[in-house]
Amino acid sequence: TRIPRAPLLTLVILDLLYALIGTCLAIAAFKAVRKGPSVRDAQARLSNLAIVAESFESPAWGQDARDVDTLFAERRGEPTRRIALVKQADGKGRKYKQLVVPKDYVKRAPTIEDFLARKTRLGTGESQM
């Protein structure tokens, strides 16, 4: 079977052009990343976690974001807001309430000492989780 020359040459030329454009864009991206922190700032601010941080936290405007964690107020040492579900005064349901967590509040993960203290408090030697 014969393959028409014009479509084949057009396909080969367009494939080479596509590869050349991809290479040029990769080189431009590599040069942009090496220029400075502004690229990392944009990368951090355009992630899903950064959008959540901007929506629910006090914004970190004017500060460079090296990573997403620096966008959260608690990582910057500022007071944060938490949303809690509390019982209503009349006892007929629950409502959402916004709580402000102070600056000096440090949240820590439970340790093995906490686990052992809970076991001795229960007095049974076994935890009831």
Could you describe the 3D structure shown?
There is one protein chain. This protein is of the alpha+beta class. Helices cover 47% and strands 12% of the residues. It is elongated and about 85 Å long. Residues 125-129 have low confidence and may be disordered.
- Per DSSP, the total helix count is 4
What is the SS-derived class?
A: alpha+beta
User: What is the strand content?
Assistant: 5-15%
Fraction of residues in helices?
A: 40-55%
Low-confidence stretches: 125-129
CA-CA gap between termini: 74 Å
Radius of gyration: 28 Å
Order of helices and strands: HHHEEH
Basic shape: elongated
Q: What can be said about the biggest beta sheet?
A: 2 strands, antiparallel
pLDDT averaged residue by residue: 76
Quaternary state of this entry equals single chain
Strand arrangement, largest sheet? 1-2
Number of strands: 2
Question: What secondary-structure arrangement, pairings included, does this model have?
Answer:
Layout: H1 5-35, H2 37-45, H3 48-56, E1 80-87, E2 94-101, H4 112-122
Antiparallel strand pairs: 1-2
For the structure shown, list the relevant keywords.
disordered C terminus, elongated, alpha+beta, 129 residues, two-stranded antiparallel ribbon
Please provide a brief summary of the model.
With 129 residues, the chain is α+β, with helices and mostly antiparallel strands. The chain is built from four helices and two strands. Helices cover 47% and strands 12% of the residues.
